[in-house]
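Cross-check.
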Amino acid sequence: MSNCVSEDFFGKSPHGNIKNISVSNQSTNAVISADDLSVSVEIPAGVDLSQISIQSLELSTFATANRSIGDILNLKNPEEFVVTAENGDVFTWKVAAFVASATPQLDNGDMNLWYKTPSDYFEPGESATTTIWGTGNPGTQILNKLATIPKDLGNDNLAAHLETLDNGKLAGTFGAPIAAGSLFTGWFNSDKLNPSDPEAAIEFGTPFTGRPSHVKFKYSYIKGAENKDKNGDLLTYDDACDIYALLEVRLGSTTQRLATAWFRSDENQEELLTQEVKFIYGELGDQYPDYMKPIDHGFVSDDSASFVLPTHISFVASSSFDGANFGGAIGSVLVIDEIEMEYEN
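Predicted model, tokenized:
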């Protein structure tokens, strides 16, 4: 029978889309429209638009393009990308740049947009292809656990509800007794799923080029009654929420921390409260706790900390500060809303 069926028996793909693209100095995720074959990328003011390099490029399956990673674009005017589908159909895309705001915000920082996934649960953002937000739900929904869900505050206002959940006895025997609610800029890579290391599958960060002075948000927090480690042993200290933002400079495979804003609290806060946290630019001294400092990379140099622009921001919130190590109190609940960057005049 195999001799009677050619390899293209089911037909060759007619799709010629740009599914994802990133370029040097990009401020936010590219805006891609398959309807009019257009891509818009946000570039900070002052960047030479004639020397923009392609950092990543994802096309439809089996499609090819006349551009590739590393190519230099001149985005002073829109550039054409010719994408050829597997079946030979040709699609001419236009990639254009526009000047980034000097005071950018995080898309959907008000948490009002949530989309339904194919697995029938909700994630923050307008759609899977455009959102800058991720949660740990893709790793826990196989256990029928959703630690991050939308919360209706009334008057068409939604927030993110993060809760530390009991994963059950079976998961506990494999060293994963709890799932802390999490919200972060970035995405969950299911190909890197590791039940013993929740953060292994998370690609933190999203393009960002602002220099905010503070991050502001609304939050409430109720800590669970018994704070335990991953072995189920009761700890002598309470659970706490973690909410932090990190400005980073990523060049190639190198990452350096530019600024840190970190809020950790074990105090119950029943009503939504507005909280401001200052960004500390440059290296963190001995007066700051170790958990605020980078583990696998360093800081930007002292002379550049006062002026250099970041390339990315990692915003992270968790209902249990040690949730990545499966430590926390079942029933700890963090609600977060209205995430906003503040800038000095």
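The two ends are 73 Å apart (CA to CA). DSSP finds two helices and 28 strands in the chain. Passed to J.P. for a second look.
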